[in-house]
Amino acid sequence: MSWAGRAWAYCDAMRVLAGLDGALLDPEAPLLRADDLAATRGDGVFETVLVVDGKPRELGPHLDRLARSAAMLDLPAPDPSAWERCVKAVISAWRGGREMALKLVYTRGPEFGDGTPTAYGMGLPIGAGALRARVEGVSALTLERGFAPEHAGRSPWLLLGAKTLSYAVNMAALRYAERQGADEVVFLASDGSVLEGPTSTVVVANGRTLRTPPPSIGILPGTTQGALFRAAERAGWTTKVERLRPDDIRGADGLFLVSSVRKVTFVHTLDGTPLPNLEPRRALHAELSDLYESEYRT
C-alpha cells in the first residue's frame, strides 16, 4: 500500500502530524514506505516553523524557502494553499502548550512509486535544550564546512543553500562539538568566510549595526534573521548582509545564532575561549530578543 501523496495526520497529547488535506490518522499507523527516498537517500526538503499561541511565525517566508529548496532538487512545486491547510490542521489539533515546532517535510516519495511526492506537517514540543539555550546562551566551535563560497554558483548539484533532509553532516558536526565540550558550531568556508550554524543563521552586532553573511555564498536565507532585522531597522539599527571573517565574529560586541525554535541565542564562548564583556553581551541579547518579539506583538 503506497503512502506517497496521501494526506494523513497524527496527534496525541504532545505531537500532531498532518497531511495536505488535514485528515487525522491513528498515532500507531505507518507513515512512510520503506523505500521512500526520504529514508533511503535523504532526498527531500523541509522547514521548521515556530508556532506561538496558535500563530505560525514567518509562515510565508518558510513556504517560499520550501519552494526554493524544492526547485533546487527538481521536485514538483509545492502548493502553498495545500501547505497552509496542513499547517492549520496541525495547529488546530495541538494541545501541547504555548509553543510548538512545526516541521514541514516534502520528499521525492517511494523509489518505485508513481512519482508522487510524500508531504506532511508534524508538530512537536520545543526541546529543553533549545529553551535553555535561549536563556543561558551557548558555546560554539568554528569548523570548516568543506566548500568555497564560489561553489554556490558554479556547482548547483551540491545544493548549497537548499534546506534538504540530508542533515547527516550537520548532525555529525554538532556531535563533534559536543565531544569537544561545546554546544554549537559556526561553519567556515574553505577561504575562511563565516557561513552559518548547522541549524541557525549567524548574526553579529557592533554598536547599533547588525550583520549577517549573504545567502549567495551557499547558505540558507534566515527567516528568523529576517524578522530580527526588520524589527531592528524600525528601532533605528543599521542592518547589513555581507561577508564576515572569523575576526568579525570574535571581535563583535555580540555573536548570535538565530533560528526559528531557539529564536535569538547568544554565544558566550568561541573555540574554547570565553568572549569578553559577558554582562554587556547578556544585555544586548535581551535587547535583541525583545526586538524580535516585537514583530509579533499585537
TrEMBL record:
GO biological process entries: carboxylic acid biosynthetic process
One matching Pfam family: Aminotran_4
Any GO CC annotation of this UniProt entry: cytosol
Keyword entries, A-Z: Lyase
Top-level taxon of origin: Bacteria
Keyword hit for Endoplasmic reticulum: no
GO molecular function, one term: lyase activity
Cross-referenced InterPro entries: Aminotrans_IV, Aminotransferase-like, BCAT-like_C, BCAT-like_N, Class-IV_PLP-Dep_Aminotrnsfr
Family affiliation: Belongs to the class-IV pyridoxal-phosphate-dependent aminotransferase family.
NCBIfam families: PRK07849.1-1 (NF005886), PRK07849.1-2 (NF005887)
This protein's name: 4-amino-4-deoxychorismate lyase
Lineage: Bacteria, Bacillati, Actinomycetota, Actinomycetes, Pseudonocardiales
Gene that specifies this protein: pabC
